[in-house]
Amino acid sequence: SGEHEVYSIDATGIALELVNSFEKELINRNITNYYLSLYPENERGYHFYQKLGMRKVQESKNNIVMYKTIR
């Protein structure tokens, strides 16, 4: 009689909340742009950040650098 509840986690929703909080904090500190880097194999992350308005500014075999201006 060991019933278990199953919870679904929307990782994209959590990631979006984290990025929004991060950007709000940057705005509070009068920071208007930022960079991030990720591994080229992280296609899901790359597309996620692209949808948030980030653009690729550099790429190598080990690294992609993305940039975003915020207001």
Q: Secondary-structure map with pairings?
A:
Layout lengths: L10 H18 L4 E6 L4 H9 L3 E5 L4 E6 L2
Antiparallel strand pairs: 1-3, 2-3
Outline the structure in words.
The protein has 71 residues and is α+β, with helices and mostly antiparallel strands. The protein has helices at residues 11-28, 43-51, and strands at residues 33-38, 55-59, 64-69. Strand 2 and strand 3 form a beta hairpin. The longest helix has 18 residues, at 11-28. The mean pLDDT is 90.
Provide the gyration radius in Å.
Answer: 16 Å
Number of helices: 2
What do the pLDDT scores average to?
Answer: 90
Strand content: 15-25%
Question: Biggest sheet, strands in spatial order?
Answer: 1-3-2
Brief overview:
It contains two helices and three strands; from the N terminus they run H-E-H-E-E.
Quickly list its features.
single chain, alpha+beta, three-stranded antiparallel beta sheet
